[in-house]
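BUG-453 | component: ligand-complex export | severity: low

The export step for pyridoxal-5'-phosphate jobs runs without errors, but we want the raw record kept on the ticket for reference. Input record follows.
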Amino acid sequence: METIKYQLNETDVPKYWYNIVSDLPTPPPPVIHPGTGQPVGPDDLAPLFPMQIIMQEVSAERYIPIPEPVRDILLQWRPSPLYRARRLEKALDTPARIYYKYEGVSPAGSHKPNTAIAQAFYSKDEGVKRISTETGAGQWGSALALAGSFFGLEIEVFMVRVSFDQKPYRKAFMESFGANCTASPSDTTNSGRAILADSPNSSGSLGIAISEAVEYAATRDDTKYALGSVLNHVLLHQTIVGQEAMKQFDIADDYPDIVIGCTGGGSNFSGLSFPFIGAQYREGKKVEVIAVEPASCPTLTKGKYAYDFGDTANLTPLVKMHTLGSKFVPPKSHSGGLRYHGMAPLVSLITDLGNIQPRAYTQIECFDAGIQFARSEGILPAPEANHAVAGMIEEANRCKEEGVAKSILFNLCGHGYFDMQAYTDYFAGEMHEQEYSEEEVAMALAGLPSVAA
Ligand SMILES: *Cc1c(COP(=O)(O)O)cnc(C)c1O
């Protein structure tokens, strides 16, 4: 029988996170304080994050040890399986070898607990009582709620309004673990009240919810803030995914020619691809890396690589990233986890260096691909993950046209079992393409802060 699942032992779960900063051909641009125009130091970030997280954020060490209590919890579902999609290969009649790393086996159903557990651990270790955060589709809020209950922390979640309304089960999930969940924009923060005064029916956005969560933490001594994507330490925590995949490819006696992930803030994509990109930088092992984003929020393909705020109310420091402008509110879509105006600075830099190819697909194209995948492989992907599936199918079809047998790896970063309304709309023909307004993006980009080079 042909192998379809490459399973590792507990001892194969990495004991270190991999930091790609150590292997970059150029150092990352500094994070800038919007008031002084100077690089921020660890002390500037101390009101928001635990110090051990801040040190990881600025680290250039190649390997950072995973604390044992964190690894012990991760072992509940790690190592996650790597599958060979044999039935899909047949259905597509492609010579390509298709592999997927499945992160939907975590208790919250996505890759997000990989960093939520670590972040909650460091908060607890430094005596924090409560963590505030934002969530788009609800996956990050769910993951942090879970982590909070393991470590005895209170979790305060600001959930983007459109998803709050689309996915009531997510709130119940978070509450099951003792977290508090509020629709954003809310009237509990100045940032939320300002947005509501301007647009009372605002559907919200990740940028707005981040402002609320940051403000909530910054105004309370016993509360820190946690981000589920974008920042260096979050990408770092996700590299456990790609390191496991490398070991699984050893068992398969193969190596990926192409690595694909969907990009919202960039964390699941980086978690899978950075160990491979690092091997390319260090040892010249060639790999083609593709980042897939929604055509309705095309940060990498249509955004500008410039300094911008991470949030709508402009409370955060300035980071250099691909951005559509912090004031841009992406149109509603079923891939709430990908509705962010910016992109991880490390993903942006590596894209700018030419080592990541960005690509954008429409919502319906992605659901078509997700259904095709599900009917062969039996797993219904999260709407966000459908973007990676669409990218994979395009590459597999290209292999067929060109008659080349490449090895393709993609991240199936979550399952879609909390997203059945999206699939209901899709089958009812009620899923519509959401165009972003070029005018609004132009306006948001015109408002980018100016930073001396
Ligand atoms: C949160 C989430 C995303 C988007 O975030 P990234 O940081 O880009 O990974 C994508 N897919 C799933 C399943 C998510 O939960």
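Assignee comment: Attached the raw record above. The chain has 18 helices and 15 strands.
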